[in-house]
Amino acid sequence: MRIPVAIALTLVAASLAAVGVATGFGTYSGQDDNAANAFSSAPSFANTGYQNPSAQAATSGGDNDGFELNPINASGDGPLYASNIDGPRDRHLFYNYGLAPPSGSTIEGIRIRLDWWLDAVAADNSMSVELSWDGGTNWTSAKTDTVESAAEHTGIVGGAGDTWGRIWTVAELGNANMRVRLTCTCTGGAECDGRDFYLDWVAVNVYFTPP
Ligand SMILES: [Ca+2]
Ligand SMILES: [Ca+2]
Ligand SMILES: [Ca+2]
Hints:
Layout: H1 5-18, E1 46-47, E2 55-59, E3 82-84, E4 91-95, E5 106-118, E6 124-132, E7 143-145, E8 153-159, E9 179-187, E10 197-209
Antiparallel strand pairs: 1-10, 2-4, 3-10, 4-9, 5-8, 5-10, 6-7, 6-9
Bound molecules: calcium ion (3 copies).
């Protein structure tokens, strides 16, 4: 039997649209996972944009060598990365972010971006972040990205309006004081043996209201 032309074109357009192909009849793409569509009542503040660390150091935890391979590669977004091999419980400091909102600003939030992945996702793996405001003497409670992936993903902890449980001064964000401490965690006994953690970027964005 012959399908009328108008109906046939409609069927073709519908099937192409279903796979997100431009048809000349309009372009469809799935929206469920489009972050740009997320409505939010979060306030919008001035911010520093994502800033990079210019210093790093392993710190105590696990086998005490943190991201022992190429740690400074975590100071920029792609393509080079830091590696923590056989890494559960290892910790690493990143600092000297050069965060400098105008003096007297009210600090409204701190957002940390972690671009990271694993060699395998068996057991329960995560990466946690703590912040220090006094050169590493005192630390906030940890915030944790529990998304596990064997390819790079972007984890976000904190954000605009999230001051990590304290009131910050501009000076506490300066290179002499502010520290980011990452902890790699795997919970699952023998499944965690040999787990490797890879880190492309650990960036900080500070939200503030100028004086
Ligand atoms: Ca990246
Ligand atoms: Ca290590
Ligand atoms: Ca990198």
